[in-house]
Amino acid sequence: MQKSVSTSSLGPGGLDLSQAFFKPICDTAPPSPTKRHTKISVIGAGNVGMAIAQTILTQDLCDEIALVDAKPEKLQGEMLDLQHAAAFLPRTKIKASVDYAVTVGSDICIVTAGARQIPGESRLNLMQRNLSLFKCIIPPLVKYSPDSVLLIVSNPVDVLTYVAWKLSGFPSNRVVGSGTNLDSSRFRFLIADHLDVNAQDVQAYIVGEHGDSSVALWSSISVGGVPLLSILERKQIAYEKATLEKIHREVVESAYEVISLKGYTSWAIGYSAASLARTILRDQRRVHPVSVLAKGFHGIRGGEVFLSLPAQLGRSGVLGVINVHLTEEEAERLRSSAETILEVQSQLGI
Ligand SMILES: NC(=O)C1=CN([C@@H]2O[C@H](COP(=O)(O)OP(=O)(O)OC[C@H]3O[C@@H](n4cnc5c(N)ncnc54)[C@H](O)[C@@H]3O)[C@@H](O)[C@H]2O)C=CC1
Ligand SMILES: CC(=O)C(=O)O
């Protein structure tokens, strides 16, 4: 296969072809050394990896994107298909290779490679299959991009974020799991739909495991800055706990539903991961519910566990965890979610 595509403008005999079209101006200076070349690598060119890559391209997030997959023909096909959209997209160099050298100098490495759930299968069930892949994927990423932020998407994402942290030797702020950033978007969509408002005006978090034991933080939901539960109480609007529980159940079942209908999920995680990449690369310091080293927060003890908490992200990865108020019931559910992940983690043997 063609290992990567060069966009050099040198023609036969070393002539700079661009000069056939543009006459150089006088007294030029080299590009400013403060203008950084930004690069994102996406490992795994399947449904999820390609949805992330295409969202990154359409949103003009970086100068270069590198794709890696174990299947060379599929990889080549995906690279060419994206390159053929060049006339409609912001200019981004797209490279692809089965060789991790293509990822050299990445700012962010997004890992999506691995097995996905079959209909009805839980995310945690994927652990052993994806653990062995991570042992081949993480070391070369560290070798070629030792200063990068690792953004883990493959499932079970919380356990694999822990695995990536262990295998990379990176400080914990530079290893982030996409976690419940997606679940929280589903949650905001369902609340917005229920209240007939815009999902972007709904602030609401799902925390804990990206999976069946996730926790909905009802106490901190606000719409347009107005706390949801207190406004319902003040206006004496009866709300049923059962209705709230039903919305959370729908969030948990969302992935199972989409997988049973189309075989996989891709578009929403594409936007979710791209929004995380934007915040990190552009040092936006936005708060996202993502999988971080959670030991010591909200009474979580007993092991090094990654799970989602609302965290502030920036150029160096995780800048801090927001001191969000949890009711005792929510904190108890969060600790129970941590135990579920730790239980699976204890079977890892790493
Ligand atoms: N965290 C989240 O919110 C979400 C996570 N996922 C997870 O993302 C993962 C990928 O899902 P899909 O893209 O739908 O699966 P897919 O089967 O379409 O793609 C997986 C890709 O990984 C590649 N791959 C396998 N071994 C590799 C290796 N050693 N090196 C490089 N590439 C390798 C395969 O060739 C394939 O192209 C799954 O684990 C899935 O559960 C999916 C949706 C949301
Ligand atoms: C598959 C998966 O993890 C999701 O769509 O939430």
Automatic annotation (TrEMBL):
Residues 180-343 form the Lactate/malate dehydrogenase C-terminal domain. Its EC number is 1.1.1.27. NAD(+) binds at residues 44-49, 69, 130, 153-155. Pathway: Fermentation; pyruvate fermentation to lactate; (S)-lactate from pyruvate: step 1/1. It catalyses: (S)-lactate + NAD(+) = pyruvate + NADH + H(+). It comes from the Eukaryota. Residues 38-177 form the Lactate/malate dehydrogenase N-terminal domain. Coiled coil: none annotated. Keywords: NAD, Oxidoreductase. InterPro entries: L-lactate/malate_DH, L-lactate_DH, L-lactate_DH_AS, Lactate/malate_DH_C, Lactate/malate_DH_N, Lactate_DH/Glyco_Ohase_4_C, NAD(P)-bd_dom_sf. PROSITE patterns: L_LDH (PS00064). One of its GO terms (molecular function) is L-lactate dehydrogenase (NAD+) activity. The active site is at residue 210. Belongs to the LDH/MDH superfamily. LDH family. PANTHER family: L-2-HYDROXYCARBOXYLATE DEHYDROGENASE (NAD(P)(+)), L-LACTATE DEHYDROGENASE. HAMAP family: Lactate_dehydrog. This is L-lactate dehydrogenase. It comes from Ilex paraguariensis.
